[in-house]
Amino acid sequence: MALGGPNHLHRSPARAIRAFVWDLADEGIHEVLDRLAQLGIDGINLALAYHGGRFYCPHNRRHGMVHAPDGALYFQPLLSCYEALRPRVHPEYGSGVFVARAREALHERNMSMTAWVVLFNNLTLSMSYPNVTGVNALGDRIEGALCPANPDVRTYAQALVEDLASRVGVDVIEIEDFSFASHLSYTGPRWIGIPIGPNLGYLLTLCFCQHCRHRAEEANIEIGALKYHVERMVRQGLSGSLSDRRIGDEIADPYNPISRYAETRSETITTLLDELNESIAGTKALIQPILSEHPDEIWRWGVELRALRERFQSVTIPTTCSINATHACLDRYAEILELERGLVADIRLRDAEGEANRSLAGLIDACEGFGIDRFVFSHYGLARLDTLDLIGSLAHH
Ligand SMILES: [Zn+2]
After folding, report:
1. From CA 64, how far away is CA 182, in angstroms rounded?
2. Buried-most residue among 148, 250, 251, 356 (CB within 10 A)?
3. d(CA 139, CA 227)
4. Does this model's pTM top 0.85?
5. For 31-41, what is each residue's pLDDT tens digit?
6. How confident is the model at residue 3, as a pLDDT?
7. Which residues surround ligand 1, an ion (CB under 5 A)?
8. How far is the CA of 179 from the centre of ligand 1 (A)?
9. Ligand 1 centre distance from Cα of residue 393 (Å)
10. Residue extents of the structural domains in the chain
């Protein structure tokens, strides 16, 4: 492979698309890649560690719906590396044969292969290993949310990225849910009879597991008093005697121990990201975090944007169907991250259905206005073929 030639192309797809393994397996790898090449797509972000659920498939010849097992890996992991947490492997694709074929076919065409992986939002592992699940101030398990302060969870994440970089041989590892959980990120059904504002939601999923408490104690935070204080606020918030705005005032007060606790959470995530980068050192792969929150809210989950700027060449940032909202969000991300060519905009094709066709072009225009010229479209197998065709028309836009 020539230096700076195809290798460079593998790493930096200009227009990639998210896909699931069954999309390629059921429709045929070469058929799918032919179609994508015609649309000007030069990379696939393939879900290789992903949530389960029911997926509706508008153009899959074999299925109208696919039911995927939760928390499954779509490659063969080197299990000895994973130590305490043994990942669930997909029964059909877990041998790794298919993903190796997909990688070969992509590289033959100079298309890049990104492993798109969910790290800590994993209901299956959370239920199998209750001790690694987050716990809130009331002692409730935050089911589905593996705590990133837990050493076993960190080892699991390191093993996963190392496996993908060195054994599967992907070009980029795009990591989703690599921080503390939001109360909205739970993948199971939720039953809510009262308003849960963003601040009460934050406190409900603020982790007080033994590892989080230990880190806080090392930072000289009186964790027992803080836990009691948060518990009281949660109870008052749930009963309606404390408004979400007033909870927000406490959270925002820099002298409140809650703010200092937030700093230890940021440290937990920043050091984790360093460990992940170390795990892939010496391979050709790069890690690309997916940011799914508003830039001014993302600190709540332990993500320090300025720390990302120094550690990653690329990050994936969200867009919405509202061009104005996307504009404001991109503006903040562009300002804080200063990554210039490193921003990859996630464009949801669902937003392109119906009358919004023009807005897809508008969204691309808004991104390009910020110097963003790399896109990942979501998702190949969930969109209709005529919607996919819009990507082709945008290529000449
Ligand atoms: Zn914790």
Report:
1. 32
2. 148
3. 10
4. yes
5. 999 999 999 99
6. 34
7. 147, 149, 207, 209, 212
8. 11
9. 47
10. 6-27+41-195+268-306, 314-397
